[in-house]
């Protein structure tokens, strides 16, 4: 980590705020209220693992013009002062009588006209990170001002990554790739899967991850049952396919990709399935362009899996990536979000080998005007064997 | 991890549901709606790091009588089926048109009478982990049923840990204690603080943590500026005091305590401050009893710090612990939560050495009828020196 908590130069954050203010203007909001770790980090550079404590809410107000205002627990003042934010108002949290509500209300009342609109992300993939009763008190206390959904404002701005952000995600991908290359050091027949999970996280840290926010995976004969479970103590055995899927973090930016390994010699079915997943990803890498919709990516991957002889798995086949492990859009049949140059995305096809047995494959890309540029070093075309 | 995702026998969860149902009955709720990772884990044993993805909401409904109902994304069905929960309803999430809202509405409409009440945690330290617009659609779709705050119901039940839970927290504390004992292997003059943070997380994993959800700390001459920052690349130097504060996790249960180390010989001020923090904690360990209020613990620690010659720091001086890094109550002057036997708590006094320089000290306990029982192996009375 750099000695400042700024991560980027102030100009990066100023450009973000201008983009948000442009979008707010079009949407008719007089201020944005942001409460999530990613949104706060995006505007301010305030990066801390302290979000892990649910005790205190944190607020950033982006007015229609001018600089953002942080309304935060006093415990965060020291760190916020090291960011580019100059307007910092604090209270002693947690306060069971008034946990920042009146301070936030007064701040918004000054910045938003009496009949104005406060934009708040309320839509798909958003959460309000403050107690609901406090939100209702805030809303009532600010009337006749109204709260309106600002999901579109935030998502359309945040989903286009700057080159500085792309560089950060590429760096995190490189860390994970180096750790994946070392999996044969820690996995093999007889090793318990939970030990492999622990060792793999240590490898990620050793290769430069600041922390490991996500690790899931699975192992079983030729494939696995699901992709979100923690690891059982069961020992790996010959014929298993092991999958590790990680969201490691460096300087606040995530990677999110996985790798598969055969324990011992891979069966023909396992090799063919891996090859189909790899080739379907290859087809999508060649075909994906700005102007397509998120659902088109789902269609491309599904068709390619069938063409390469695999049975496509359900669920989404990719998604956005950056400040959180997953961001919008989702590669599902229903997501009509336009794909644009500058989006960082995962391609994540899944195949069903038989009931209860799947295999998944994932790469991270940035979409360019004329191509999909890989951010994760490409997986080997053939399923690697750990012998 | 065990081969099942159950963590505990089904009887543990059944007892929890009965306790919640008793409390719901007194509060007049006809069902509880739970959306947070900790609340879902508490009722079901469903443990996954997949919560790291904000894409999908997850719902558990606890009816006034009978078994809980999981209304969850299809991607979680396999894992939920391995818990004790038998009533599982799924949808293909994320769905931009209807992300589980109608399925949840239909579920609640069946379980809650037309003029009944749905209890939802809405108070201090709670968040609604679903999009706000979806909550409003759900609320309107269920009218004339009403949503009412169930924070008290959930907190009064969850805050009393079973012996099985206490054992889990004690195990996690033991893992962290072994890692803290090994800090001299990874820290010393010349070592960058960010490398120490990475290595310490690897030590925690090596000692048995499933993952490391939280690590913060600081280092500076005799103390540090704050306790929530990520680590800068600055090298440790003679005269620094290094503090590491971790929330490691094993089988879903957290520890949360810290340790201080002098780099080289400790100054007299650093040694005296550490001794005052240690002694104030000792006094609180002796004095704390069920029947006191959370604010009494704050008072005990503050008075003891002054008596031992330190300047008490602001903020809260301890809190609950268990399924999340921090739980209610808070040791602040305003928190009137009664302390009861079975609560797992942290004692976390802080001292101000001079403006911008603090030192903190933390232990984890379970409150018993006649004493405070340590769960974290007690810190050394004297500030250890890494030479």
Q: Count every helix of chain A, treating DSSP H or I runs of 4 or more residues as helices.
A: 11
Order of helices and strands of chain A: HEHEEHEHEHEHHHHEEEEHHEEEEEEEE
The CATH topology of the largest domain in chain A comes to Creatine Amidinohydrolase
Question: Judging from the principal axes of the Cα atoms, what is the shape of chain A?
Answer: elongated
What structural category characterises the helix and strand content of chain A?
A: alpha+beta
InterPro entries (chains A, B): Creatin/AminoP/Spt16_N, Creatinase/aminopeptidase-like, Creatinase_N, Pept_M24, Pept_M24_MAP, Peptidase_M24B
Protein name (chains A, B): Xaa-Pro peptidase family protein
Pfam families (chains A, B): Creatinase_N, Peptidase_M24
Domain Peptidase M24 (chains A, B): 168-367
Could you explain the architecture of this structure?
Two copies of one chain form a homodimer. Chain A has helices spanning 10-27, 37-44, 77-80, 101-111, 132-142, 151-158, 163-181, 183-186, 193-206, 268-287, 294-307, and strands at residues 31-34, 59-63, 69-73, 87-91, 117-120, 146-149, 211-221, 240-250, 253-254, 257-263, 318-320, 327-330, 344-347, 350-354, 357-360, 363-367, 372-374, 385-386. The first copy, chain A, is α+β, with helices and mostly antiparallel strands. Chain A folds into two domains: 10-158, Creatinase/prolidase N-terminal domain (Creatine Amidinohydrolase, Chain A, domain 1), CATH 3.40.350; 163-386, Creatine Amidinohydrolase, CATH 3.90.230. In chain A, helix 3 links the parallel strand 3 (69-73) and strand 4 (87-91). The longest helix of chain A is centred in the C-terminal third of the chain and has 20 residues, at 268-287. The first copy, chain A, is elongated. The interface between A and B is large, with 84 and 84 residues.
């Amino acid at each position: 980590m750099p000695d400042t908590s700024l991560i980027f130069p102030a100009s990066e954050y100023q450009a973000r705020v201008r983009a948000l203010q442009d979008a707010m203007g079009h949407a008719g909001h007089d201020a944005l209220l942001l409460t999530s770790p990613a949104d706060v980090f995006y505007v301010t550079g305030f990066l801390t693992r302290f979000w892990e404590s649910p005790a205190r809410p944190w607020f950033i107000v982006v007015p229609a013009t001018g600089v953002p205002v942080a309304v935060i627990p006093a415990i965060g003042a020291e760190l916020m002062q090291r960011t580019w934010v100059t307007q910092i108002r604090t209270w002693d949290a947690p306060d069971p009588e008034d946990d920042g509500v009146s301070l936030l209300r007064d701040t918004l009342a000054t910045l938003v006209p009496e009949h104005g609109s406060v934009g708040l992300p309320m839509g798909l993939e958003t959460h309000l990170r403050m107690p609901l009763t406090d939100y209702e008190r805030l809303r009532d206390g600010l009337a006749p001002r109204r709260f309106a959904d600002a999901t579109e404002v935030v998502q359309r701005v945040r989903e286009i990554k700057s080159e500085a952000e792309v560089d950060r995600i590429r760096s995190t991908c490189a860390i994970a790739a180096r750790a994946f290359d070392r999996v044969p050091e820690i996995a093999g027949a007889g090793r318990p899967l939970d030990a492999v999970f622990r060792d793999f996280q240590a490898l990620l840290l050793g290769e430069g991850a600041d922390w490991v926010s996500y690790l899931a995976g699975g192992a079983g004969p030729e494939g696995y049952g699901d992709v979100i479970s923690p690891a059982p103590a069961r020992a790996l055995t010959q014929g298993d396919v092991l999958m590790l899927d990680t969201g490691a973090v460096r300087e606040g930016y995530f990677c999110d990709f996985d790798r598969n390994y055969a324990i011992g010699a891979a069966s023909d079915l396992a090799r063919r399935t891996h090859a189909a997943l790899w080739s379907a990803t290859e087809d999508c890498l060649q075909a994906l362009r700005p102007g397509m919709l998120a659902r088109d990516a789902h269609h491309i991957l599904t068709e390619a899996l069938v063409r390469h002889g695999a049975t496509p798995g359900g669920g989404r086949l990719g998604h956005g990536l950056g400040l959180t492990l997953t961001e919008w859009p989702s590669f599902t049949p229903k997501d009509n979000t336009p794909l644009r140059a500058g989006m960082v995305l995962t391609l994540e096809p899944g195949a069903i080998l038989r009931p209860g047995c799947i295999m998944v494959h994932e790469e991270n890309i940035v979409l360019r005007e004329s191509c999909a540029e890989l951010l994760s070093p490409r997986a080997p075309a053939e399923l690697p064997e750990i012998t």
